[in-house]
Design goal:
The structure holds two protein chains of two kinds.
Chain A lengths: L1 E4 L2 H13 L4 E5 L5 H7 L5 H27 L12 H28 L19 E5 L8 H10 L2 E4 L1
Chain B lengths: L8 H24 L1 H31 L10 H7 L2 H9 L5 H4 L5 H6 L1 H6 L5 H31 L3 H29 L12 H26 L8 H32 L2 H9 L3 H21 L9 H27 L7 H23 L11 H5 L4
Classes of the chains: A alpha+beta, B mainly alpha.
Chain lengths: ~160, ~375
């Protein structure tokens, strides 16, 4: 069941009513982020933890790689400095760690969200890409009654229900 | 939203007691080892004026960015900025100790050392204190004007007053960028008169902003615990943490940038600063400085749950308080006292200045409604939520 709303307030009203009925809301598409929806959907993400460990891994890997190159594999004398010039490694470590975190987090996110280049976009309602608010309710959730839900969404101010 | 802060009698007595301890420690220090006493005097003076300047800058940033969330808490940085006139008097008293601290103030050093002679048109005692007077006059004038407009706003709603404060904030930020840079160079960097670092002033300013922001947060949390500032919620705490987190990173960046360029350039007139400070006790302080001011805030304030939790924030703030002391000790002691001495004089004088600072802050907190009444963003601040 898809409900299309013209404004945020109607959507929030319907969102609360549908939730209190115990129906499962599959997804809500809004033109801008709405706190109440973000909290109400109750979705949790672990991508921040993943990003932290990618950063840790990246920093250690870059430091290790530079140590190997500058000390073990190919020591060169730069103006009498020690081979292990730790302070000068830091700058490269910061920059390379940012790159590693960005790329690995992007790949993790893409893999989890199952998106890849060339994938055809799954658009529930074309108006969701414009200025409308679209709510999708799972038809298989217990207590689902198409007629009752249609009436409820219409009463909350939905401009289109199907 | 009238909220009146009443100064607890115990806190007042405690502050006065701490000031007495500080004065005793200073007098004992002067009699035994005047250089050490004056080094302490300079350190604590700079420490607390940094907090006040950082707090005033915090208000300025809120106004020019038109931030809504902080409107309910602006009386706390205002009260901290009220310390600046007291610091001005204390800094003028430095005239009696200037010969104990600054090598360039000795006539024989100017006569024999060509580098000091070269710098003497700028670094000489009359001009040094003339600068102190001008800087403090500007800071006092601007912070008092900001405070007056802010109190006027309590009487009646007016967008004009808000715009006026925004304008004053712009002027203050512009003025403080120049004056505080010169001030930190005068007070701390010129202790090592042969040494120079172009990022020193920026680092001192970021340290002031970082520690000022953390003290604001600490005062807000303490007031909330005593039943004031009921509007405080977890989103506000998160925003305060963002300031500390972001500024700790900037501080770490500047501190490392100063060290790495000097280390890599390896020019004797620059490296001697760190050569003295990388061995023995100072070597420990070098790493302690980085851990306290960067590593701990960075790691502990990063997770979302801890950035909203007082249980994590308060210990981190307490460590940052130690961190600012460590940084100034690390910069001042090797240049003046040489030997790393830490004892009752250091503790007593720090407590004395802390007592004065807290007495000024609570007195000014009690002078006006704790929550501003007609700030245009007040409602947004009360409702703040993300």
């Amino acid at each position: 069941m898809v409900g299309v709303f013209d404004n945020e307030f109607d959507l929030l009203q319907a969102f609360g009513k549908v939730k209190s009925k115990g129906l499962k809301i599959e997804e809500v598409y809004t033109p801008y982020p709405i706190h109440e929806i973000l909290e109400g959907m109750g979705t949790k993400t672990r991508i921040t933890h993943a990003a932290f460990f990618f950063g840790l891994f990246g920093a250690l890997a870059v430091l290790g790689g530079m140590y190997y190159a500058a000390v073990e594999s190919w020591p060169l004398n730069f103006g009498g400095k020690p081979f292990n010039t730790f302070p000068s490694f830091i700058v490269v470590t910061i920059v390379a760690t940012i790159l590693i975190v960005t790329l690995l987090t992007l790949f993790t996110f893409s893999a989890r969200a199952k998106v890849f280049p060339g994938k055809k976009a799954e658009i529930v309602d074309i108006r969701a890409t414009d200025d409308k608010f679209v709510m999708v309710v799972d038809a298989s959730s217990p207590g689902y009654d198409a007629e009752e839900l249609t009436a409820l969404l219409k009463a909350s101010g939905a401009s289109d229900v199907y | 939203m009238e909220e009146k802060f009443i100064v607890p009698q115990k806190l007042k007595l405690l502050s006065i007691g701490l000031i007495v301890i500080g004065v005793i420690a200073f007098v004992v220090g002067l009699l035994n080892d005047p250089t050490r006493a004056w080094a302490n005097y300079l350190l604590n003076n700079f420490y607390f004026v940094s907090l006040a300047i950082g707090a005033a800058f915090f208000i300025g940033i809120q106004y020019i960015s038109q931030a809504g969330w902080s409107a309910a808490f602006k009386r706390i940085p205002e009260a901290m900025a009220a310390y600046i006139p007291f610091a001005a008097v204390l800094f003028l008293l430095l005239i009696f100790g200037v010969h104990h601290l600054y090598e360039w103030s000795h006539d024989e050093a100017v006569a024999t050392d060509s580098l000091i002679k070269h710098k003497s048109p700028y670094l000489n005692v009359p001009f040094f204190f003339a600068r102190v007077i001008v800087f403090f006059a500007l800071w006092i004038l601007l912070t008092k004007l900001m405070r007056r407009v802010s109190l006027k706003e309590d009487e009646a709603y007016s967008l004009e007053l808000f715009n006026k404060q925004e304008w004053l904030s712009k002027v203050f930020i512009f003025v403080v960028a120049i004056t505080f840079s010169a001030f930190s160079v005068d007070m701390i960097m010129s202790l090592e008169v042969h040494w120079f670092s172009t990022i020193f002033a920026a680092k001192a300013f970021v340290a002031a902003f970082l520690h000022g922001a953390s003290i604001i947060t600490l005062i807000v949390i303490l007031l909330h615990r005593r039943g004031y500032l009921k509007v405080l919620n977890r989103s506000h705490l998160h925003d305060f943490t963002r300031y500390m987190f972001m500024l700790a990173i900037v501080w770490g960046y500047f501190n490392f940038a100063q060290f790495m360029l000097i280390w890599y350039g390896n020019i004797p007139e620059e490296t001697h600063f760190y050569v003295h400070r990388m061995h023995g006790v100072y070597g420990v302080l070098f790493y302690a400085n980085i851990v306290l001011n960067w590593a701990i805030p960075f790691l502990f304030l990063m997770p979302r749950f801890s950035s909203r939790s007082r249980m994590v924030m308060v210990p981190v703030i307490l460590l940052l308080i130690v961190g600012q002391y460590t940084e100034l000790y690390f910069e001042i002691w090797p240049a003046t006292v040489h030997e790393a001495k830490f004892g009752l004089i250091e503790i007593g004088m720090f407590l004395g200045f802390a007592g004065l600072f807290s007495l000024v802050v609570v007195t000014y907190l009690a002078k006006a409604s704790l929550v501003p009444k007609n700030h245009p963003y007040l409602e947004e601040s009360v409702q703040h939520h993300f």
